[in-house]
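I would like you to sit down with the pair of lines that follows and say whether tokens and residues agree.
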Amino acid sequence: MAAPASHGFNPLTEFEGRWTTALAELYLPVEGLPPAKYECVDGNLILSPRESYANSFAAMKLGYLTFDAAIKAQLRAVGALNVMITEQRWIEPDFNVVRPGQDGIWIDANEVVMTGEFVSPTSRTRDHIDKPAICAAAGIPYYMTIEISSADKTVRIKLWKLVGGRYRPLRVADAGERFETDEPFPMSFDPVELLDL
């Protein structure tokens, strides 16, 4: 349970540059602030707004489309998680594939097979540059991005595979095409299925 900010004490500034998972458990979320995604890079907390309706809908639909196939592959397709790289570095990907048997607030990056991000205008740089670098350094084998334009009714899925310490493109598909792969488990669907039409 997060402690309220009171009597001039503000955990966001008090612990700047020193955030750890232990402090996060004590002070996050910060009472009085709108709901946010809390991530941390080397003790520096990063707050970003929750996903848009289109991205949230697509995340649920992606989970539905991949749930059974992941289980057959002895993996688990789940939503947003706190993926811990170190005590002072964690991310909260929108979609994850993990090994079975996970529990608790923090999931060790070694247990994560794939992270996925639904890219929004406020997260474009982090989702395309920062987070792939963090995930690659942590040795997470696969990284996925999904970009949706509700206005244009378009969606693009990109899946990368970690090769030699860097992500290399594995599959790309747009709405109207088939996104098909056997890695990290069999998936086959038209990305248009992620839209709320």
User: Anything to note?
Assistant: The longest strand covers residues 154-163. The helical segments are 11-14, 21-27, 53-72, 124-138. Residues 77 and 97 are 5 Å apart (CA to CA). The chain has a mean pLDDT of 93.
